[in-house]
Amino acid sequence: MILTVTLNAALDVTYQVPEIDWTGVNRVRSVHRRAGGKGVNVARVLHGLGREVLVTGLAGGPVGRAIEADLEAAGLPRALVPIAAESRTTLAVAGGGGGAALFNEPGPEVSEAELREFGRVYASLLERAEAVVISGSLPRGVPAGTYAELAALAAEHGVPAIVDADGAALRHAPVGRPAIVKPNAEELARAVPPHGHPVEGAEHLRARGAESVVVSLGEEGLYAVTPEGTFRARMPYRVEGNPTGAGDSLVAGLALGLVEGAAWPERLRTAAALGAAAVAAPVAGDFDRDVYARTHPLIEIT
Amino acid sequence: MILTVTLNAALDVTYQVPEIDWTGVNRVRSVHRRAGGKGVNVARVLHGLGREVLVTGLAGGPVGRAIEADLEAAGLPRALVPIAAESRTTLAVAGGGGGAALFNEPGPEVSEAELREFGRVYASLLERAEAVVISGSLPRGVPAGTYAELAALAAEHGVPAIVDADGAALRHAPVGRPAIVKPNAEELARAVPPHGHPVEGAEHLRARGAESVVVSLGEEGLYAVTPEGTFRARMPYRVEGNPTGAGDSLVAGLALGLVEGAAWPERLRTAAALGAAAVAAPVAGDFDRDVYARTHPLIEIT
């Protein structure tokens, strides 16, 4: 089983409004609600590939129960730890013209006791895990070093961890000696001293404890700096679509390669193809199987 | 106990966003969630006045559970009938400049079986009711004559009904011989043939079966056309604030007068003062006790 951790699970809501009146009353034509957060999206992709997954994290209030209900409906096994505060909602208001405004709620504040309880549940879930993916933002009240601690706990259980984070959580993550840290180029630039090339930035994170670092460059492909050497994946062509969720799909590919013991070039090929296939799918957590099958053999690894 | 019926119960959500970017990503500074729908607001006002109330209606899905949880938190007794579809959310996005955009979800579709089950629950609740307030919009799948049927069922139990509705539901309502129908001037104009004066419009609804008709005119006060005669309430001064929920507060005042057996002039005074006191309160379902106390003796009844 691949465990995915989403400490700041969300309910992703999309309103379709044909003609938006930003100062008046709008009738919403359709409403879509879906459990979200980066770890949930990673689990969806792995589940779609037929892998056994388990979603853990924190969820609270009626919105937390809506997240649970949607995971249930999607057939995604879960072990979410309840919190008192209400989980966050993200709202996209999409108009007829194709534009969208996004509203991100501040999200819950997590208590020390709740975080301790999560640690207890997490440690027990590690007993059954082949790999763990720790990704997304930290809710308020959760210390920046938490992902490092979760990765270290996984390492103690012999479970390789992948961390996909930003900001302080990313800066601290290598201390936990995760198997893979996956920033994109902007996140990497914010987390390490100025560097001329993404590979130099990645080496900073490796020097701090990360075994391998994969830097995603959007349509420019990927760099992987690993004990086996440095690799680059280049995309065969540009895939049009929605980049939201592409990073999560890419991380799912890295997790797959990790549990299958694939060599780095093959891991990268799978990750890059899943990233492209997610761009071709309209919703985060989905991927286009045709694009995946078509892109996979064409990705160039050097 | 005063029973309030809210067939289209809602979760009223307000986002405060300091500077709204209608084409980009917004951090929501604060989120307020509150059970709503006109019958819920009426119950809040009556509860605030120390009256025993019971909220009934339909609620479904995670949003329905959020509505239940908020009623619980507010100490409002309830007997909501569950439905399969998800209850509606109304969202107000309020910017720093004071403006707000409103988004109304299409809301649930109710099945015949669910509506029958509601009828069964409603009939049993009438056994304990002194009065029933039936108000707000009808969810999809609920026939326009439903409020008339609910009022007729109340009459069979000897329970006076107040109906506050719009459109087809208002046009049908008098058939159920409700004690009071409460449209505002615009709703009345849409529901009856063209008339020169609100009192003439009210007489149309009385001719169809309504015992009394109260027409609210906003800051212009109220007309009541009743078996005891026709009365007008005039406001002593203009109250500044938020008119959302003023109609519900006014209806709470009418219900109070009904169960207390107050004469029409006194009922109107209470209703008009509660309407004004709701304008002075920022949130629907609340009212300003000082404004209520100050306005009440000054309202002129003719």
TrEMBL record, chains A, B:
Q: Which domain of life is it from?
A: Bacteria
Q: Where does the Carbohydrate kinase PfkB domain start and stop, copy by copy?
A: 22-282
What Gene Ontology molecular-function terms does this entry list? ATP binding; phosphofructokinase activity
Q: Which CDD domains match?
A: FruK_PfkB_like
Among Pfam families, the record links this protein to: PfkB
Extract the InterPro entries matched here.
Carboh/pur_kinase_PfkB_CS, PfkB_dom, Ribokinase-like, Tagatose/fructose_Pkinase
Give the UniProt keywords, A-Z: ATP-binding, Kinase, Nucleotide-binding, Transferase
One cellular-component annotation, GO: cytosol
- What family does the Swiss-Prot or TrEMBL record give for this protein? Belongs to the carbohydrate kinase PfkB family.
Protein name per UniProt? 1-phosphofructokinase family hexose kinase
- Organism equals Nonomuraea rhodomycinica
